[in-house]
Specification:
There is one protein chain. The chain is α+β, with helices and mostly antiparallel strands. The chain has 12 helices and 13 strands.
């Protein structure tokens, strides 16, 4: 009853890209992917991440109808850097049917074993910048961009195939107080007395554009120790910048420079989730207006990325950027910040979240299985 088919044609890819919206059409907290973005992401000619990976895209048909999908990835560059023989599965979607899930996952396991892989982890994409893991706590909350928004049954399908925890990420909600504690301003004041550092703020996207690639270069250095992270090549940086530049709100991007070199950055943006849901992932012809409309109505900023160069941590750079972001968000009339995907092993960041009164909001899990 189950037929597995590799994606080989444009029509196959169309089914692969559009299938999640069909499967989860009745699930209120599902966040559709931006379809125009997916057409680029799953195209090896436009996504340079394919260059350093073995990949396969697969569809499952049940009773001749599309019933599920999955992607297999063997990241040769990551395995070489970390001395591993791991494979990844990602972009797994199917109806609540164990038979379909088993057929999809078994296909990827056998494909990976034939290529010398000894362990599968997932859901995971090319890097930690792609959606990672499955939502396991916080189903009642609205989704956030670039994070899993699966219904609970997807987790059960994976677990019944023998997959167990690899690592968790958590997400925090921070209702904005009237002001920050005084000691943050004292830390920031000490930082400002070091004249060689400069906090850069933006009001227009064309002001921000020259900083995007330098920020990504700095991210390569700061994120080198993070689970699943693969340094971006210059071509991948250009792809990444093109993918997200139009979504950024310059008011909520802060960076710190010293002698013209970026030492730290933080990136937030107004929540786009409700607008993307209303648009059902389609930008055209009218979806873009729905997204813009909802982004102007939302009172939440999503904190997507942030980092300080390792050798400059503990000097107050993060506090100074945080204060500037807090002031910009408050001035714009927002009332809360959702902090995106912190690894459970990042004890320093987790402690800081608790210290400022943020509450754990969601939990995401990456699974693993020795094959």
């Amino acid at each position: 009853m189950i037929k597995i088919k590799e994606v080989k044609s444009k029509s196959d890819l169309r089914i692969f890209i559009h299938l999640p919206v069909k499967i989860h059409s009745n699930y209120p907290n599902f966040l559709p992917p931006l379809l125009i973005d997916d057409w680029k992401f799953f195209n090896p000619a436009k996504n340079r991440s394919f260059d350093s990976c073995d990949t396969v895209l697969v569809l499952a048909y049940k009773n001749e109808k599309p019933a599920g999908r999955i992607m297999g990835i063997i990241h040769r560059k990551y395995n070489e850097l970390h001395g591993e023989r791991n494979g990844r599965f990602g972009y797994f979607e199917c109806y609540d049917d164990q038979e379909t899930a088993h057929a999809l996952i078994s296909f990827i396991e056998n494909w990976a074993k034939e290529k010398g892989v000894s362990k599968l982890v997932g859901p995971y994409g090319f890097s930690d910048k792609d959606p990672q893991g499955l939502l396991i706590e916080g189903y009642e909350h609205p989704p956030i961009l670039a994070a899993a928004s699966n219904p609970p049954y997807i987790v059960k399908l994976i677990e019944k195939e023998g997959y167990t925890k690899e690592v968790d990420c958590v997400d925090y909600m921070y209702p904005l107080p009237e002001s920050l504690p005084d000691y943050y301003y004292k830390i920031s004041q000490r930082f400002q007395e070091r004249e060689q550092y400069q906090v850069i703020e933006f009001t227009k996207r064309n002001q921000l554009k020259p900083y995007v690639i330098p920020i990504l270069r700095m991210m390569n250095e700061a994120y080198s120790h993070i689970y699943g992270f693969v340094p971006l090549t210059e071509k991948e940086m250009l792809d990444f910048a093109a993918r997200y530049m139009s979504l950024l709100d310059p008011r909520f991007v802060k960076t710190i420079v010293k002698d013209g070199e970026i030492m730290a950055f933080i990136i937030g943006l107004p929540s786009l989730a409700k607008g993307i849901q209303r648009a059902k992932g389609k930008l055209f012809p009218f979806g873009i207006f729905k997204i813009i409309h909802e982004s102007k109505k939302t009172r939440q900023v999503d904190l997507m990325l942030g980092a300080v160069k390792p050798q400059y941590q503990g000097l107050g750079l993060d506090v100074s950027m945080g204060i500037k972001l807090f002031e910009s968000v408050k001035k714009a009339g927002f009332i809360q910040i959702e902090v995106h995907l912190i690894l459970e092993t990042n004890h320093k960041m987790l402690a800081e979240m608790e210290k400022i009164g943020a509450k754990m909001h969601k939990r995401f899990r990456v699974f693993q299985k020795v094959i």
